[in-house]
């Protein structure tokens, strides 16, 4: 469905914003993803994704306080909107559907295949 | 604590490219990460990671967009300006039409004239050495007027080359009809049929080298170096030898089969922008027109060109050259001819005889008054045209300014509102400037189209073959730059004026400044009409002079005379032909002679003395013509005293008929006396009335007529208007005599009129320009009057209701404008009079500059203006008053 399009990285960001709840801003999101998924996230990639999600109205933002280590720049906190929540649910349900549609046999074959390769 | 900062340059770069909306948040993130890394991993790593982060942020969604919330340019505003301008343009179609239409006409006129001027200025620039090539001019002053000639004695070229180290090379040509140059009958040696052709000239091999003429066939260095060699142009090669290399082939000129010319080469046609225009260059090796002619200093027939060393100081060299040549060659010649040294020196001194060197790229435009039988342009015409084009553009620009300021009341509210919403004055100025640039661009496009459409007509009247130089790289950009420039110039005043409105006042509705006739607008209208009236006056004077030329008493009858050309190939048979033509019923008389009294015919300059005075008196500079006994009768030239030639009298072979001028110059009662020139002693048997055999620009000069035979022109005087029957009758006779040569003829009155082609051309061009100027000016006046009527609509309605007559309303509305035109007329009259007096100075014989010309021009201008205004004024006066008052 076109209406709820969500890329892989975008979904990760959305989920992380959800995890961090009211503490989701640039650096915290970056760190959370890096910690949980042990993958490097560049500021540029993250900001691009955040922008895109904001444009799609899956996230909304508000300005936070400025701190000293940020050289007086304010934080921008993100929250999931209702639309964003629906998009995430849609994404999860379509995936679940697809998961459940995979026949059991496929798993067995895959394992055999893996062993064969080893 | 002192903060450690990330790399400054990278931070600045980031701040520059980042979208301003995101900048502070992302910069905050970056700073937070930086300080954290600084603590954990040290400055080096932190810096490095920071650099990576910034570089990875350089992506489309982060980079600031070129439009949107905050722009560095004012594209959006500009778009708005253009939109508003376009809407205004459509809303007021009539005013827009006047603005743009007038502008477009002005642009078209300017463009055409600019191309014309460019063409005129490009003459002879293509000759490789044009900076070092000069034409030698001989200058003498007589009766206060300086006469410039290009003809010099044959040996002068070689004398120049030998005597002056500054001169690298010299070359000559001789295009005098007297020597058989000009036009001839020509045929390929092995074919019987003659064809008529023009452009024959005697030409030095060295002149070919100096001009570096481009050869298609033949050796450029040796093409004319054999006796009887001839070089022809590409177009003539194509005519006589289609598709072959004609080098070595033979040509017969004027049926002289015993003397053939061998083609030594084929050159490219002379460019249209060359002052030299020839087709057959006959070599001069071994050529002598009489014994020792090539060494004779007493006859001047050769135009002489010199190629000087690089860096020669021309003025001082000119003086040195004049001095030495006069001293070493002309003086000895005059002494040899029997003059005393004192007389000769006195002649040099009295006439200030000297020589000038004219750069060949100036020959075309700066040869006014130079007697060289070439077709010239005139630098004054170039200036004049440039001025006129500028005036027309100016008149159109004035329309633009007038209408913009007049209509300002309609835009005042807009300006006020813009100011209230935060516009600065500069923004309003920008708006109106961009509007006028838009108008200008549209006008340029339209003007270009008009120019394109009228180019053939323009070429016809200017006698050029101009094309629009699309293919040149500079053309489009320069037009674009010009249109923006003109747009800004025309828009400056209106934009400053409109932007000066006070918002409060205009929004309260107090401002109707535009309605009042401002002094500036009146001045501009006066200026427009002054220009137009001057042009009308000029046109009328030019036409009157043309009329004068065509209808003045010129001393011979030019009507109904047919000139049969090329009879020289018939040799002695021409007498029989003349006899036979004379017996035709429609023919009055026939005369055989080359000396026709229109410019471009054969001429022969000579000195005459009274008998026995040869070495005592200075000679009278005269023309000396050989004619037949029927000449005076055929051309209707009147004898004042004495008698015509009589072919039965053997003694008439030494008789001479002179004109009154000659009689006056030689002095005394000459009838029956004897006078002399180089050719012999002549008894005066008759004196004829002076007749104009040259242009009316010049004085009639002394003339002596003696008997001679066998010429290339037969003048046939007819007695009826029925030309075609007579011509075909003549044609039948011609065919019997010259079956291999098609009959070629023209009419004497046409040839006469052709002498004044340039005047006619001027007349046509001036007519076109005056019409253009007056049309554009009237367009402006029309729009202005429409505007006045619009503004004063209510006032007029009230007046009508209170009992004003249509007449009084009409007067009220027109008088203001007519007043301006009357003032313009008062200014234009003296200027026009002055300019036209100057122009007429070129003519010795000229029309009167009567008051009636000015009266007619003035009343014409006023009438045209009145008609223009009337439409709107009458519309207002005849209108039902209710229509304008209903709204309140």
Fill in the keyword field for this structure.
heterodimer; A: 118 residues; alpha+beta; Arc Repressor Mutant, subunit A; two-stranded antiparallel sheet; 5 helices; 2 strands; 13% strand; elongated; disordered C terminus; B: 888 residues; 6-stranded mixed β-barrel; 25 strands; globular
Characterization of the model:
The complex is a heterodimer of chains A (118) and B (888). Chain A has helices at residues 8-20, 26-37, 43-55, 82-101, 104-117; strands at 59-66, 74-80. Chain A is α+β, with helices and mostly antiparallel strands. In chain A, strands 1-2 form a two-stranded antiparallel sheet. In chain A, a hairpin with a 7-residue loop joins strand 1 (59-66) and strand 2 (74-80). In chain A, helix 1 crosses helix 2 and helix 1 (8-20) packs across helix 3 (43-55). Chain A is elongated, with a radius of gyration of 18 Å. The termini of chain A are far apart. Residues 112-118 of chain A have low confidence and may be disordered. By secondary structure, chain B is an alpha+beta fold. Chain B folds into 5 domains: 1-72, no CATH class; 78-123 and 376-516, no CATH class; 133-311 and 343-363, no CATH class; 532-552 and 755-888, no CATH class; 561-754, no CATH class. Chain B has a 6-stranded mixed beta barrel. A 6-stranded mixed beta barrel of chain B has the order 17-18-23-20-22-21. In chain B, strands 16-24-15-25 form a 4-stranded antiparallel β-sheet. In chain B, helix 22 runs parallel beside helix 25. Classes of the chains: A alpha+beta (118), B alpha+beta (888). Chain A binds chain B through residues 25-27, 30, 42-45, 47-48, 51-52, 63, 66-67, 69-71, 73-76, and chain B through 3, 22, 24-33, 35-36, 52-53, 56-59, 61-62.
How much of the polypeptide of chain A forms β-strand, as a percent range? 5-15%
User: Helix/strand/pairing class of chain A, anyone?
Assistant: alpha+beta
How far from one another are the termini of chain A? 39 Å
Enumerate the strands of the largest sheet of chain A in spatial order, edge to edge or round the barrel.
Answer: 1-2
Fraction of residues in helix of chain A: 55-70%
Number of domains of chain A: 1
- In the predicted model, the low-confidence regions of chain B spanning at least 5 consecutive residues are none
What's the overall geometry of chain B?
Answer: globular
Spatial strand sequence of the major β-sheet of chain B:
5-6-11-8-10-9
Query: What structural class do you assign from the helix and strand content of chain B?
Result: alpha+beta
Q: Quick check: average pLDDT of chain A?
A: 82
Largest sheet of chain A: 2 strands, antiparallel
Structural domains of chain B: how many: 5
CATH-wise, what's the superfamily of chain A? Answer: Winged helix-like DNA-binding domain superfamily/Winged helix DNA-binding domain
Net shape of chain A: elongated
Task: Give the helix proportion of chain B (percent range).
Answer: 40-55%
